[in-house]
Design brief:
This protein is mainly α and 433 residues long. Helix content is 59%, strand content 5%. It is built from 17 helices and eight strands. The chain has helices at 11-30, 39-44, 47-50, 54-70, 81-113, 123-146, 149-169, 174-179, 183-186, 197-218, 223-245, 274-278, 282-298, 333-348, 357-373, 400-407, 414-425; strands spanning 193-195, 253-255, 262-264, 269-272, 306-308, 322-324, 386-387, 396-397. The strands form three sheets. The protein has a four-stranded mixed β-sheet with strand order 3-4-5-6. The protein has a two-stranded antiparallel ribbon with strand order 1-2. A hairpin with an 8-residue loop joins strand 7 and strand 8. Helix 5 crosses helix 6 (123-146). The longest helix has 33 residues, at 81-113. The chain crosses the membrane at residues 12-30, 50-66, 87-108, 120-142, 149-166, 199-218, 225-243. Keywords: Membrane, Transmembrane, Transmembrane helix.
Amino acid sequence: MRQLLPLRVRPATWAFVPIILIMWFGYLNFYTGPGAPYWDAAFSRPANAFWFGLPLVAAVNAAEFFRLRSGRVLRSVVITRSALRLFVAHSAPGFAIAAVGYLSLVAVEVVRGGVPSAGYPSPALLAAVLAVIVAALAFGAVLGLTMHVIFSVPLAVVLTFLWVTVPRSDGYNLGWRHMAGYGLHECCETFAYTIAWQAWLAPVLVALALALLALAFLSAGNKVVVRLGALVAGTILVAGAFVTTSGMTANSSASRPVNDLVCAGDSPIICTWPEQAGGADGAAVSDTLRTAFASAASRGIELPATVTAAIRPEEPSSGDDITYFGYTGPADTPAVIVAYADAITSSRVCGYDNLDEAGYQRLTRASYALALTMGGGPNDVLPELYVVSAADEEPELMSPEEILASLDVSPDSAAAVYTEWATAQSDCPGKKE
């Protein structure tokens, strides 16, 4: 018995080009800026465009499984390997189209972002992508197995389109957004973040629920028992997805595991993500940090012995000799020095979240002084300061001369200015450590 219909007459044959074009149309409209040199970013950014091809993917499977049902090849008695084999075999063309479209967008993101060979995409992120595709295929299969093609195909297009668009426009029931896979798009823009476990598990549970339902309708045994069991199991899975995402905000990112960090050297020890270490700017940024560390040490400034690209924990251990350095820009020496100095002073300041205007001014002055001790030029590491002449006027950027006069720090006095400020932060109850 032949279970596969000839590819030349399959719905996937005529749907291939439209699906790819729709994905690319969405991509060209959503992504015009530069890419990100990070594997998870390259795999997550195209999701917002990739979704718009899924309604046609579901429609392809609706038509395919209607043809399968009409061909009278459904002979399995229970949900067995034969039902699974039928689902996989007849969903393969639709899956291939979705995968080709998605991976073509990923390839462009890899090239545009200059993603290095070091590192790899998060398996959880790939699981979420796979789940979104399987959910569309399974939904189309259920429609194709339960109604005529003139109804199943339009319903597959309309309902899948609503599923991938309406939840993400709902600003109140954010759990639905993550169940629909919206976390794919917004999880991973920088090195230090990956997709949160709730944001990938929820679409996986939804996909499993729909796949169980599709397998139940592929079975020709005791239909009532099998389909009722699949419906109950699917409901439990969807409820689990809903509970998993309840309480989530629009943010679907989580701190990347620190085990992924690559640490090297000493004075200081520098820990970066694999893509950073293997990127074009990685070595230059590390060299700048070491030079800055040595320069500050020569001026009597003691800095934390480790610089890490990890996200600062909510409640870091007291006394951690670590600088959390989230710089992701190019290897521009002044910019790296400024970011390094700011990371150190913001972690040492007393009561960071409750600083008044005077406190921010002292913090800015200390950061500038520290940047000078790190070898930064007086004008190269100068912060931008603004002045407001009247309450109803826009802030006006001060000139470099005015900023220098306001800060009143020179290369000769920088070490003393920073040391005085740091000493004042050492014993306060609100210290951010």
